[in-house]
Specification:
Layout lengths: L19 E2 L7 E2 L2 H7 L8 H5 L6 H12 L11 E7 L3 E6 L8 E5 L10 H4 L9 H8 L39 E6 L4 E6 L8 E2 L8 H5 L4 H12 L12 H20 L7 H18 L9 H11 L6 H16 L7 H11 L9 H7 L1
Antiparallel strand pairs: 1-2, 3-4, 4-8, 5-7, 6-7
The protein binds zinc ion (ZN) (3 copies).
Length: 369
């Protein structure tokens, strides 16, 4: 097992006796009381500049969750559940599971750094390519935060540093076209959450897809070939001919999904006016959900589930169907997002009472009026 690091400043904890343990979850460790307080967001203004150079994980928001979840599955704690470790000389560093992690569980939460200067040099210095410029390092390691799924947002398209965010720990995750984990931006805590896409064994490397198949990818009509080209151009990744992404069924799913997305977009260009149009729309949503279920990250279903809900609740006959879409959507988000996330809370109140949605029974109301 590798050395312990402070969960806030990432410094190595060399003398175990001096380790400060979070009293809430009793899992997370710090080098000092200062670092613990900072990770909880208890920061005096005078400390702010030093703080920005560190890499907290907004632990004040997550601590109570870890305490609950650790008792069952043991997730999200660096040094106990996962660690950054040397994979092999070719791959370099990666993230390795220290405990079995169940499908759908959060694996880790990381901060997002958006400022890069001499104060944060210690965060960027160890990143690959080792002797490259800061821009080159960010191009390789940063994630875009424009949308909440971090799907196809492109940190390479904008030269401004604001377009970049760096998750100092999770940027160590290596790529896999058929990965055991995914990542998602949690807007409430502004952290990057890594979650398991399937059961992960102890000692297994945790990998993510740098270009996962999401609704944004389908909408942009990205072909499997274009995706591989981008993996090559931006990360130097070459897929061998036996890679998952070359499998015939995967290529077929992606091609069909892109067509279906175009069809759904066309159908939703205006609110489907007749009941039969709305049924056609819902059928297309169902077809899409069925198609991408096994090949795409669960978050890629979110847009389709939401659209399905919004259309279904317009007709009394389809309300149960709409609630079923929303129930699935809530489950996808609840597995990743912080429980206090505004969008998640909104889904939950809609589940309790779908009639608070402005389009609820839109057509029934029109008819009676
Ligand atoms: Zn520290
Ligand atoms: Zn804690
Ligand atoms: Zn591949």
């Amino acid at each position: 097992m590798s050395e312990l690091v402070c969960a806030f400043c990432l410094s190595t904890l060399e003398i175990p006796q001096t380790v400060i343990r979070c009293s809430g979850c009793t899992v997370r460790v710090y080098c000092s009381e200062d670092c613990r307080n900072n990770d909880f967001g208890l920061v005096p203004a005078s400390e702010k500049r030093r703080l920005e150079a560190a890499a907290g994980q907004a632990h004040g928001h997550w601590c109570a969750l870890y305490a609950i979840q650790d008792s069952k599955h043991g997730i999200g704690s660096e040094g106990r559940d996962w660690e950054v470790a040397q994979i092999n000389p070719h791959v370099g560093l990666g993230i390795v599971a220290l405990q079995p992690i169940g499908r759908g569980m959060r694996v880790a939460v990381d901060s997002l750094q958006r400022r890069f200067d001499s104060y944060t040099a210690h965060l960027t210095a160890p990143l690959h390519p080792l002797h490259a410029s800061l821009r080159e390092k960010l191009r390789t390691n940063a994630v875009g935060c424009a949308d909440s799924t971090l799907s196809h947002s492109d940190p390479h398209s904008d030269d401004s540093q604001l377009a970049y965010a760096l998750a100092p720990r999770l940027s160590r995750a290596n790529h896999d076209c058929n990965p055991n984990a995914g990542r998602c931006h949690d807007p409430y805590t502004d952290t990057l959450v890594m979650y398991a896409r399937r059961d992960i064994q102890q000692g297994e490397e945790i990998r993510i897809d740098y270009m996962p198949w999401t609704s944004a990818m389908f909408e942009a009509q990205i072909s499997p070939h274009a995706r591989r080209q981008e993996l090559m151009d931006h990360w130097g990744i070459t897929c061998s001919s036996d890679c998952y992404c070359y499998q015939r069924n995967v290529q077929q799913v992606v091609t069909e999904a892109a067509q279906l997305d175009k069809h759904i977009l066309f159908l939703s260009a205006s609110i489907p006016q007749s009941f039969s149009q709305r049924m056609t729309f819902l059928a297309a949503i169902d077809e899409m959900l069925d198609l991408i279920r096994d090949h795409c990250p669960p978050v890629s279903q979110a847009d389709y589930l939401w659209n399905g809900f919004c259309i279904a609740i317009m007709d009394k006959a389809n309300v149960p169907r709409g609630v079923e879409y929303l129930r699935k959507l809530e489950a996808v988000k609840a597995a990743i997002f912080h429980p206090s996330d505004r969008e998640l809370l909104h889904f939950q109140s809609l589940l309790r009472d779908p009639s608070i949605h402005e389009d609820y029974l839109l057509y029934e109301v029109d008819r009676s009026g």
